[in-house]
Amino acid sequence: MNSITTPSRRLFAASAGALIAGTALARAASAAGRDPAPSRGEDLIRRLYDAVNKKDLDVIAAYGASFSEWLDVPFAYTTKGKRAIIDPWKSWFDIFPDASCEVRSVAAMGDHVVAQGIGRGTHRGVFNSPAGVLQPTGKTMAVGFCDVYELRGDKILRADSYFDFYGLVNQLVDAPLRVASR
Q1: How far apart are CA 62 and CA 7, in angstroms?
Q2: Residue 121 falls within a domain, yes or no?
Q3: How far apart are CA 14 and CA 150, in angstroms?
Q4: How many CB atoms lie within 10 A of CB 43?
Q5: Phi and psi (nearest 5°) for 161?
Q6: Phi, psi of 173 (to 5 degrees)
Q7: Is the Cβ–Cβ distance between 151 and 44 less than 8 Å?
Q8: For residue 52, is it within any domain?
Q9: Would you tell me how many other CB atoms lie within 10 Å of the CB of residue 123?
């Protein structure tokens, strides 16, 4: 039996557990005819996405601390430190100035929060991506995302941001990218 020994595997296991437990609790409360009060973590992350949709850079930046980390999973790129939360969002807004996030679900358990939704925007800025530099196309995009957070107080300790990179890029280019077969 494999053990969960690395920090990233422990975080993933805890996050997956949080998502499953949070969803089960929400379903049970809904079936009983009442909506559960949002947890502190759920409330913090919903406020983060509200700030993202308003482009409130000060509020977004306030989620960062010296110990913060943001991993853009499709790019295998981690930002660390006080600007770890604001810098990825600022870069995204530079590429998609009208970017918005429709949060479809948030599940929290303790200090772990998972948010799932759809990001939308119009490609107006230069996009330095793993597929190369994409000049602005003016095309709109909609891409599913799943962000996994670990909180420390009112700060983000770690965020792992997952989204369909190929689906995103294929909405912006004329000739779709193809994944090489083995």
Answers
A1: 25
A2: yes
A3: 9
A4: 14
A5: -105, 115
A6: -105, 160
A7: yes
A8: yes
A9: 21
Are 103 and 42 a contacting pair, CB within 8 Å? no
pTM: 0.78
Query: Quick count: other Cβ atoms within 10 Å of Cβ 72?
Result: 19
> Structure tokens of 135?
């000049």
The total of other beta-carbon atoms located within 10 Å of residue 182's CB is: 3
Q: CA quadruple 142, 146, 150, 151: dihedral positive or negative?
A: positive
Integer Cα distance of 9 and 5 in angstroms? 7
Distance CA 166, CA 170 (A): 6
Task: For residue 20, give its domain range.
Answer: 7-172
User: Could you give the C-alpha distances from 137 to 25, 122, 126, 150, 171, in angstroms and in order?
Assistant: 43, 8, 9, 35, 10
CATH number assigned to the domain comprising residue 83: 3.10.450.50
Residue 163 lies in a domain: yes
Q: What is the DSSP letter of 51?
A: H
Q: Which amino acid is at 107?
A: A
Q: What is the mean pLDDT of each run of 10 residues along the chain (182 residues)?
A: 48 52 54 68 97 98 98 95 97 98 96 97 95 94 98 98 94 80 66
**Domain count of the chain?**
1
Q: Which residues contact 153 (CB under 8 A, 6 or more apart)?
A: none
Task: Determine, yes or no, domain membership for 80.
Answer: yes
